[in-house]
Amino acid sequence: MAVTTYLEAIRQALWEEMERDPNVIMLGEDIGTYGGAFKLTKGFLDEFGAERVIDTPISEEGYTGVAVGAAYMGLRPIVEFQFMDFIASAFNMITNFAAKSRYRWGEGVPIVMRGPTGGGVRAGPFHSQSPEMHFVHTPGIKVVAPATAYDAKGLLKAAIRDEDPVLYLEHKKLYRKVKEELPDEDYVVPLGRGVVRREGKDIVVITYGAMVHTALESAAALAEEGIELEVVDLRSLVPLDRKTVFASVKKTNKVMILHEDTRTGGMGGEIAAILAEETFDDLDGPIVRVTAPDTPVPYSPPLEDAFIPQVQDVVEAARELAGF
Amino acid sequence: MSRLGKRELHELFYYMKLTRRLEEEVASLHRERKIEGSLFLGMGQEAVSVGTAYRLGSTDAIASSLPSFGHLLALGVQPTEIFAHVLGKDTGPTGGRDGSIFFGDWRRGVVSPSGHPATHLGVLAGVALASKSQSRSGVTVALADERSVATGDFHEGLNFAAVHRLALIVVVDQVPLPAAEDQALYDRMRGYGVPSLPVDGVDILQVLQVIETAIDRARGGKGPTLVEVRSARGPRYGFDEDAVPFPFVGGRSVAPIDPDDRAEDEPSRDPVGGFESFLVDHTLLQPVERGLILERIERLVADGRRSAEKDSFPGADLLENGVYDTSSSRTEAASGSDTV
Predict the structure, then answer these.
(1) pLDDT > 60? residue B230
(2) Which residue in A25, A27, A55, A73 has the most chain B C-beta atoms within 10 A of its own C-beta, making it the best mutation to test that interface?
(3) How many CB pairs under 8 A join A and B?
(4) Where does the pLDDT of residue B331 fall: very low under 50, low under 70, confident under 90, or very high at 90 and above?
C-alpha cells in the first residue's frame, strides 16, 4: 500500500496494462518524447518503445481512426486527447465509425479514449469542457468518470480490458489533489457500478467526477445543520448503475443531481427522466439539478467560479429541497 | 506486371462482367421498389474495383467508399450475399443493420466504410500499423473518389501512413477535372512524399499493373502510394429518373459508358465491354469460353437474387442487439437489472 495521486493511479494503470498485455498501445500528441502535457506518460517511450507509444501529428480524427483499425487487428489502443476538448475534432470517427461498428457489421472496437476533462484550473473555454454527453448520447460507447485514485486505476484497467470503445474522463483538477493508499495487487473497478460515497437519510446527491468531492464537502457542512446527504458516485455514465441510484432514492425520497457539465441535455436531465419514470412513487419533492449554466467555460476566475457548481450552491439547494 | 495467363484474363473478365450484371439486377430490384432508399451503383468503375482487389490475399484489407461492388466479388463474396445486403435481409453480412455500399466482412479483410468519404483512410492506416507491428506483410487498400480529397480524414490518414511508412494504397477515382486541378492532387502527394501514379481506370490491365507496383512498394516497406484513376463512371449513377440524383456527377462532364452515346471515332469507355472486345479480338476468349462464363454469371446472379429475395428480414426483436459486447464476462455492459 502506498499513497498514490489520481494522476499516478492513471499512470500505473497504463503502465501495468502495457506490461500485462503486449497488444496494448498508446497514441496521442506529445505522449512519447515529451511525456505528455501533464507528464502522465513520462518514461513510457523508453520502456515500451516507439511501436507501442506513438507520438501522433495533431490530427485527432486521423489517429482515432488509426486506433480503430489497429483494434480490428487485435490490438488494444489507448488514445489520449491532450485535453478532452479536442475530442470534438474526432467526433465523426468516434460516433460514426467506432461507435457503430459492432452494430453495423459485427466488428467490435476495443479502444479507450482518455484525457483531462473539466474546469476549475483557469484554462478557459477550450481546455475546460465536459464533453461527456455527446458520447453518452451515442449508442455503442461507454463513458466513465472516476472521482478517486482507486477508481481512476481500477476503471482504466477495466476500460482497457473491455471489448467496446470507452471514453475515460479524468478530471484534471483531481490529478494531484486527490490521493489515497492503493492496493499493490491488480484490481479493476467494473464498468457500470456506482458507489455510495456517504450515507445519509435526507437527500441523495447523484453525481460523478470532481463534483463527488463538492458533494462530500457539502454533506459535511450540512450535517452540522442536521441535513444528511447521501452521496452516490456514478463512476460510469454508460452503463448506468440504476440499482444503486434507485436504492438511494427509495431511502431518501429526495433527489439532487449535481454535475459540472452544462445544464441542458446534461446527465441530470436523463437521470431525472429515469427517476420520474421508475421511482415516481418514491419521490417526496422535485428532482433538483445543480449544474453549470448553459454557457461556455469562462476564463476569468470570478466567472469560472460562478460557472462551476460550488459547495454553497449545493448547500442552498439542499436546504430548499429539505423543506419539502 | 506479372504475366497474366489465360485463366487470369478470363477471371478478370468474369469478375467485371459479374459486377456489371449484379448491379444491373440491383438496379432492377430498386425499380421494383424491393430496395428502399437511395441506391448507388458503380457502373463504369468495374476495372477500378476489380483490378484493385484482384491481387489481394488473406493478410490484406480493403475498404471502399465507391459504389461499385467489384472489389467484393473479386475477393470471393457471393452475389447472393450482396443481394441480401442491399435488400436488408438478415442473411447479409450486417444482418440488415446497414445496406448500400456499407458492406463489411472482416474475415475477408473487408472493412465497412462510414458515410463520410475518407474516414476509412485513417482506419486502414491503423490496420497497416498493426500489420507492421505484428510483422505481417499485409497491405491495405482504400478506394475513394474525388469527394474525399478535400476532407481532413483524407489528409490525416494519408499523412499518418506516410510518416510511419505504412502499407497503405489509396486509389482515388476522379471524374475528369480541369488540368490545373488534376495537377494539384499530384502536387499535394509530393508534399507528403507519397508517389502518385496516374492510370486509365477503364483499362483493367493498366489498373492491375499500377496496383501491382503499389503493392510491391507497400510490401517492400516503402510506404503509401496514391493511385489516381479515371474510370468511366457516369450518368448511369442515377440510373433512372426516380433514383435519387447522384451527387458525384452534378454538373460535371463525365464520360458516358454507353457506346451509343460516343462519337464515332471515340474509343469505348466501357471497361467491361472494352475488355471483352480486347480478349475476343486477340483470340484470348473463344466463343465457347465466353458462353460458359456468361452462363455462369447469369446463373449466379439469378440464383443469388432469388435466394436473397426468399430470405427473411431481421425481426424487430433483434433491434437492440449488438450495440455492445455481451460475450465477455469482463464487461458489465447493459446486462442485468442494475445497469442500462
Answers:
(1) yes
(2) A73
(3) 187
(4) very low
Closest listed residue to residue B23, CA positions, set B58, B64, B63, B70: B70
Cell 499513497: give the residue: A3
DSSP assignment of B91-160 equals TSTTTTS--TT---BGGGTBPPP-SSTTHHHHHHHHHHHHHHHTT----EEEEEEGGGGGSHHHHHHHHH
Q: Show which of residues 16-45 on chain A sit within 8 Å of chain B, judged by CB atoms.
A: 25
- Sheet with A112-117, strands from edge to edge, namely A53-55, A24-28, A76-80, A112-117, A166-171, A142-144, A236-238
Q: What is the pLDDT of residues A25-40, one digit of tens each?
A: 999 999 999 999 999 9
How many CB atoms within 10 Å of residue B267?
9
**Partner residue opposite A107 with nearest CB, options B104, B126, B333:** B104
Q: Could A69 and B327 be called an inter-chain contact, meaning their C-beta atoms sit closer than 8 Å?
A: no
Q: Which residue has the cell 480490428?
A: A72
Q: Determine the pLDDT at residue B178.
A: 55
CA separation for the pair A178, A237 (Å, rounded): 21
ipTM of the complex: 0.96
Please determine, for residue A220, whether its predicted confidence score (pLDDT) is greater than 60.
Answer: yes
| Contact across the interface for B122 and A56, Cβ inside 8 Å | no
B181 confidence band (pLDDT: 50, 70, 90): low
CA atoms of B160 and B137, how far apart (whole Å):
18
Contacts of B331 in chain A (CB under 8 A): 162-164, 191
The closest of A57, A42, A216, A128 to B157, measured between CA atoms, is: A57
Q: Among this protein's residues, is A127 annotated catalytic?
A: yes
Task: Report the gap between the CA of B242 and the closest CA in chain A (Å).
Answer: 28
Of B114, B119, B325, the CB nearest to A108: B325
**Which pLDDT does position A238 carry in this prediction?**
98
Q: DSSP readout, A206-274?
A: EE-TTHHHHHHHHHHHHHTTT--EEEEE-SEEES-BHHHHHHHHHHHS-EEEEEEEESTTSHHHHHHHH
Answer yes or no: do A93 and B122 touch at CB < 8 A.
yes
Contact B337 A73 (CB under 8 A): no
On whether the CB atoms of residues B144 and B62 are closer than 8 A, the answer is: no
Give me A71's grid cell.
483494434
Q: What is the pLDDT of residue B174?
A: 84
